[in-house]
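Quick log. Single chain, no ligands specified.
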Amino acid sequence: MLENFDKVTIAITCYNAVETLERALRSAQRQSWPNLEILVVDDCSSDGSPELVENLIADDPRVRLIRREENGGASAARNTLIEVATGEFIVFFDDDDESHPERVSRQLAVLRAFESNHPGAPAACYAGGERLYPNGYIKALPAIGSKGRPLHGVDVANYLLFFARPDGLFFGSGTPTCALLVRRSVLVQLGGFDVLLRRVEDIDLAIRLALVGGYFLGTSECLFRQYSTKGPDKSPEANLNAEIKLAKKYQQYLNSIGCYHYATRWPNLRYLHFKHRYAAFLLEFMKIFVRYPVKSLRHILTTGPRRLRHERRMRKRSK
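-> predicted structure:
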């Protein structure tokens, strides 16, 4: 009896994903939750992706393809999904990921259990997952809020903007949209995704949720697999520009807590590391350290060794 199950919209954005889209769509169709609609928004693909979708969904009335008339990027495509969704909840699948059949059911169980004790509180639930690299290396992607005390409010905003990490809180792998399940009403309340951001739009959405007192929950299980790919939109330059743009968007808030300079300068350290410009990296770090000695030292001692271990494992796998 479907009336006993909340309707969930699985939202898939698609752009030139003909090689991976079938895997993502099939994993959506295999979800165990019985009351589903599956929406695929094509953002003006030129590789035959929409035609592939039409062939794959011919016998499945739960699935609908929406074609955008002009390319607007991930934010615009997701806003289209929010506008046309009829589910009470929306869960986002990426066009190159693969989700466990129980993903929707388990994320929904976590979110509804929280809501039963916190009626009316805006909340988002993120799935734990893993990232598979082309050389076979697998990186675990634990979900934010999947252990420790509940996460909410400025604690999350500060972590996303300048890596503040209060003791006892678990931030996992952050707030990727590909892991997100949330009430549609919350997304509408937040105004959807910022179409001016072509990257870090997922972080921006989470910051806005945090600044209105939202809660962040996570599943303990690994419920999706992300396949790592490269592209010009994922370059160090693109990441640097997007992260600085994000900090500038929240300049007023960051100035109010004395962290604007830190939030705009730290992304340059990541960029210099990825470009192997280590002398410039050291000089930039010293400039930040002079102004924020405790914050910068804690930050680099927390993230630096972890990044180096990750890169070392990547090199070993590739040999």
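Residues 293-318 form the longest helix (26 residues).
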